[in-house]
Design goal:
A hairpin with a 4-residue loop joins strand 4 and strand 5 (about 135-140). This protein has seven helices and 13 strands. The strands form two sheets. Strands 7-9-8-10-11-12-13 form a seven-stranded antiparallel beta sheet, with helices on both faces. A six-stranded antiparallel beta sheet has the order 1-5-4-2-3-6. The chain folds into two domains: about 25-115 and about 120-170, no CATH class; about 175-200 and about 220-335, no CATH class. It is of the alpha+beta class and about 325 residues long.
C-alpha cells in the first residue's frame, strides 16, 4: 500500500475524532473555555503560575465591562538606588482599545493534537482585567494543540496598548556593583554542592546481572602552592542570613558581603589545610549564616576554587565536590577581620 493510502485510511478511521481532514491540522475537539470568576482583589500568581485565593481563570464573563488589563511579570529586573539590580515582580496596567486583545483572549483553543508534542512547558504571565467598579477577573489564554498558552499572540495585542502605570516589587538582589568590582558573584549557594556530594556519596546499585558503565574523567583539581605563589587567593564572602531591605534568601543561598585577598603565603597555608582535611564525619542539617568561596587568582593550571562554611557545619567543599571538615586554622585564614 502506498503511503498516501495509509494516511487516507487513518483519516477515515479517526474521522469522528478530527475537526479537520488530512489536508488541515487534525486533532481532538478542545474543551469549551469557561468564564472567569469575578473577585474583589487581584492576586498575581507566583513564578510557577500558582495564585492564592479562589479566582478561577477563564474568558471575560458576559456583562463584565472592563476598563483595564493587568500583566504580572514574575521575572522582572530593575536597577535601583546605588546601582544594585534587583529581581522581582512587575505589574503593568494597560489601557486603550481593548477589543482586539479581548478577541484574542476569547478565541477558542486549537484542536488537541494527538501526535507528538515538545517536552516543554510555557509559563505565561498572569493576566487580570478590571471593570469600572474595581472588580477583577483572572484571564486564561487560548491554547495550542499541544496545550501550551498562546503567549506570543496575546503579547502582540498588549504591545498595541498604552502602559498607563506599572509597579515593580523588588524581591531579591540580582547584581551588586561591589561584587562585580571585586570579581565575585553577587549570589552563591552551597545547596547544589550539598546535593552533589550527597549523590556522590550514595552508590547506585546495578540491576541483577548487569553492571553500570562509567565514563572515566579527571575531577577538577585543587590549586597547589605554585598556582598562587604570585597572586594568591580571592575569597568572596557571603551572608545567608541577610533579610534587611527585602533580600530573600533561598535555603543556604548567600548574598555578597565582602571580599578578602590572601597573599601567597596565606593562600598556600589555606590550600595545605584543605588538601589535608579529613572527610566530614556525618550529615549535618545546620545552615551556615556565612560562607566563603575561594578562587585562585591568575592560576596557571586551570585549578578551581573551594567553598568553606564559616559557621554551622563548618565544612569545606573542594573542586571534586568532596565534603571535608574545615580546620580552625582554615576558618581563621578565610574569615574577614
Amino acid at each position: 500500500m502506498r503511503r498516501g493510502s495509509v494516511i487516507a485510511t487513518v483519516c477515515a478511521v479517526a474521522g469522528m475524532l478530527l475537526l479537520s481532514g488530512c489536508g488541515g491540522a487534525p486533532g481532538i475537539a478542545p474543551e469549551p473555555r469557561d468564564e472567569a470568576s469575578i473577585v474583589d482583589e487581584m492576586v498575581c500568581a507566583d513564578a510557577l503560575g500558582e495564585a492564592e485565593g479562589s479566582a478561577t481563570p477563564g474568558i471575560v464573563p458576559a456583562g463584565f465591562a472592563l476598563v483595564a488589563v493587568y500583566r504580572c511579570g514574575p521575572f522582572a529586573t530593575r536597577e535601583l538606588d546605588g546601582g544594585v539590580v534587583w529581581s522581582g515582580t512587575l505589574v503593568e496596567r494597560f489601557e486603550g482599545d481593548l477589543a482586539p486583545l479581548l478577541s484574542e483572549l476569547g478565541a477558542p483553543s486549537d484542536p488537541r493534537w494527538f501526535g507528538a508534542c515538545a517536552a516543554s512547558m510555557v509559563i505565561a504571565p498572569d493576566l487580570w482585567a478590571e471593570d469600572a467598579a474595581g472588580r477583577f477577573v483572572r484571564l486564561s489564554y487560548p491554547s495550542t494543540g499541544c496545550s501550551q498558552p498562546k503567549v506570543d499572540a496575546v503579547d502582540g495585542q498588549l504591545a498595541r496598548l498604552v502602559v498607563a502605570d506599572e509597579v515593580f516589587t523588588p524581591l531579591s538582589i540580582f547584581s551588586m556593583p561591589e561584587a562585580v568590582a571585586a570579581g565575585c558573584e553577587t549570589r552563591a549557594s552551597v545547596t547544589v554542592l550539598n546535593v552533589l556530594t550527597s549523590d556522590l556519596e550514595t552508590p547506585r546499585a546495578a540491576p541483577a546481572g548487569e553492571s553500570i558503565a562509567t565514563i572515566p574523567h579527571d575531577p577538577p583539581a585543587l590549586p597547589v602552592a605554585a598556582d598562587v605563589d604570585v597572586d594568591g587567593l580571592r575569597v568572596c564572602v557571603y551572608a545567608s542570613d541577610t533579610t534587611e531591605g527585602g533580600v530573600r534568601m533561598i535555603g543556604d543561598e548567600g548574598v555578597f558581603a565582602g571580599v578578602l585577598l590572601l597573599d601567597a603565603a596565606d593562600a598556600a597555608a589555606a590550600l595545605a589545610e584543605v588538601s589535608g582535611a579529613a572527610e566530614a564525619s556525618a550529615h549535618c542539617p545546620e545552615v551556615a549564616s556565612r560562607f566563603v568561596v575561594a578562587q585562585p587568582l591568575g592560576a596557571r593550571s586551570g585549578a578551581e576554587g573551594f567553598t568553606v562554611e564559616l559557621d554551622g557545619c563548618r565544612r569545606v567543599i573542594d573542586p571534586a565536590f568532596r565534603t571535608l571538615a574545615a580546620s580552625e586554622m582554615l576558618i581563621s585564614l578565610v574569615t574577614p577581620s
